[in-house]
Amino acid sequence: MTIAEDIETLKRQEEALQFDHLSEADAWTLGSLMRSRAVEQGLPLVIDIRVAGRPLFYTALPGTTPDNPEWVRRKINVVMRLHKCSYRAGREIAAGGMPLDENRGVDPIDMAPHGGCFPIHIKGTGIVGTVTVSGIPQREDHRFVFECLCEFLGVDPAPLALGPED
Asked: How far apart are CA 91 and CA 136, in angstroms?
């Protein structure tokens, strides 16, 4: 897929993967599902779910490092600043968009426009939080979150999946 095709697919994913509601129990259920999938696949992931900055689920699986939570923090900053998934932000920058730097009023050390963080968008409310992973290559981080959200929300992932990267 080209960068432009990726960006359009990511926009469709963001539109399709919106929540009717998300309680603390829902966040725990989603996080537990994500943890189970990561363990089944042998993935070394940090998984973080938060609403309004409040952590509702967190786990660090074997193989993660102390750097992974820092990547999570930086990806969350991108989503909460731009209200789009972190992978889309990175793909837009790669396509020639304005980088996340001092010209946009941010310190680049606090931003990671890389795959793995998806907004929690409550229908009728807006973006209230994030679902984030870190630990594998960024496109795979994104794919993992996307597939888990599809499973949790009952959305067929096939028509929304990213193809192979060009």
From this structure: 17
